[in-house]
UniProtKB/TrEMBL annotation:
Pfam families: T2SSF. Residues 1-21 form the signal peptide. InterPro entries: T2SS_GspF_dom. This is Type II secretion system F family protein. Residues 54-172 form the Type II secretion system protein GspF domain. It is found in: Cell membrane. Keywords: Cell membrane, Membrane, Signal, Transmembrane, Transmembrane helix. It comes from the Bacteria. The chain crosses the membrane at residues 166-187. It is a multi-pass membrane protein. PANTHER family: INTEGRAL MEMBRANE PROTEIN-RELATED, POSSIBLE CONSERVED ALANINE RICH MEMBRANE PROTEIN. Its main location: membrane.
Amino acid sequence: MIVPLTLVACALLVLPARASAHVRLRELGGDVGREVPPSTVRDVDLHSVATTFDLLAACLRAGLPMATAAAAVANTAPAQLSFALRRASELLTLGAEPATAWADAAADPAIESLARMARRSARSGSSLAAAMTELAIARRIETEDAAAAKAERAGVLISGPLGLCFLPAFICLGIVPVVIGLATKVLDGGLL
């Protein structure tokens, strides 16, 4: 009885209706398509951030203005970075100063370096594409270092349980037979 009801419920969700799946999921309580401010997102995948920086560098090398490049890249960026890129793009399009446009991004420590470089580039007139490439490389190095640190930590943490497993076996199979063998020779031989 449960299986047919489950299949009917899934069919009602999947079948085309007047409202799109996006609208139906939102009605069910999902947060599809909603922008998430940076303060609510905690975990950021540094590889996707590095890829976003590479895409931004490619757009800037192609000759797009910063506002257009940020808007184009924001669609594929992680939520935290996407929010900052969209906001900066909108403010730059409206004619805001770069310091004002990148203020929200500068408040977030995960993407503060992007805001700092964008403001510096706007102030000095230098190209931001090379800086974005260097920033992407730095993010990838951070990711590799974090992965290596986690692997080393796992190696250290696994030694405790392994030691607790092998120590009794070593005592039972290595030390106890030697002690019993020596004790039988000493006690049977009349040395004591």
